[in-house]
Predict the structure.
Amino acid sequence: MRSSLPEWKALCAHFETLTPCSLQELFQNDAKRASNFSFEAAGWFLDTSKNLWDAQTLELLLALLRACDLEEEREAFFSGERINRTENRSVLHTALRSRSDDRIEVDGENIVPQVHAVLQQMEIFAEAVRAGQRLGYTGVPIRNIVNIGIGGSNLGPAMVTEALASYSDPKLCFRFISNIDATDFSQQTRDLNPAETLFIVASKTFTTQETMTNAHTARDWIIQGLGSTDAIGKHFAALSTNSQAVKEFGIDPEQDMFEFWDWVGGRYSVCSAIGLPLMISIGSSAFAQFLTGFRDMDTHFRESPLERNLPVLLAAMGIWYRNFFNAESQAILPYDQYLQRFPAYLQQTDMESNGKSVNRQGQPVDYATGPIIWGEPGTNGQHAFYQLIHQGTSLIPADFIAFARSRNPLGDHHDKLMANFFSQTEALAFGRSPAALRTAGVPEELIPFKTFSGGKPTNSLLAEELTPHALGALIALYEHKIFVQGVVWDIYSFDQWGVELGKELAHVILPELQAEKEPALGHDASTNALIQRYRNFKG
Ligand code: F6P
């Protein structure tokens, strides 16, 4: 068990000696703390100095990472070993951003040519849509692109398409449907003209209930709107690993299917064909820059020494808070409206990867694993939940993410936004003491309420501008952070068995909800009663 390692125990002992120190003291003890704890890679500047750690903490954390064979595991990951052992698969989302002359093998076959062949196929398709050359059944150009998918087949493309909307072709309209709740389909399509609408059915397996239900509804919507089943071929494309199911749905796999592979996990698939909506939105050359951003962070992660390695540092810090401070959650706070879906995206990437409680030997772990990931864009959060981060009883480490230049430089909005960015991390770190309040003349009875203890840890991540490259590098930074943490926690980060049971039970329950006659229910008493109540209510 990881918690029995001497390196883990050394961190427990170090925790006891360090934690009486405040951030003020840590800054006083090291005149160069801000620069000593700041790092740079792939266009991102990371300041970790406002964290409850010092040089010795970092040294001990890196010793733990080395004791967990991080460097060997990292190499096994990049070189295509089947590190997703419970599904017997390689994990090669990094190959999706390889250069065409790279060589990465799976079962002795170089997969790089396949990756680039699909990228080329995507490019032809995307540029045709952008040029108005992809025509619908009635001969009018496609203008509306509606992605149907869920989980990684939704969160990735939806998040990045919104994040890079300032680079988008304004003639085109992008929508994302994921929920099986018909409200999602209805709301997203109510103002669309079927003649101008292309559905992209994004599903690795092409069997996911939510996606296939929405895809069939979309098919009916097209047939009804355009009056012929012949219209389907012109209004659908598929992103999938399952060509048989795509064909059965009525999409020609040769023409309109964009393939990816079982070594791409759903939540790590945004650089694969799953990124097609983004490529249509921003064009193939900007999409290439997006991939370059990922690749630059991949190279940094693979080649840089651990002590200057951004994903490693974020991961080490997360372990420090999760396992030694017992922090249960991690806030992601982008000070950029375009990144409003980034916390939700990371929720899946992180929580579906590291939300595990047995180690690789199948034993229950006796230490905490993945934290709860949550967040909202910058100043909106300040007027909602920051109160609890500043003065609540939970320690919530937070990542603050921002850009020096706005994509929408209106008046002084951006300086005001950034003033809030800097002020919040300062207030969280250093607080406001009773003594300072007294000096400011605050009445004695209000002092307990107006005191800010400080010592609330934050990372500041800054880049020049939200470009496709910066976004790619940012996503890769977190992908690799999650990988490192999985190695230290000795868990399998690339399977997701925890989503299966609910899916299976839903298949049992659906016919019970739809049965004409009262069905015999074999669930627990609560579930039986709820099903009966639902049947009664719906009449
Ligand atoms: O939620 C489980 C999951 O398998 C995710 O990992 C995946 O991103 C999502 O469902 C969608 O799966 P698919 O792309 O096969 O429809």
User: Anything to note?
Assistant: Residues 468-489 form the longest helix (22 residues). The mean pLDDT is 97. The CA atoms of residues 204 and 240 lie 4 Å apart.
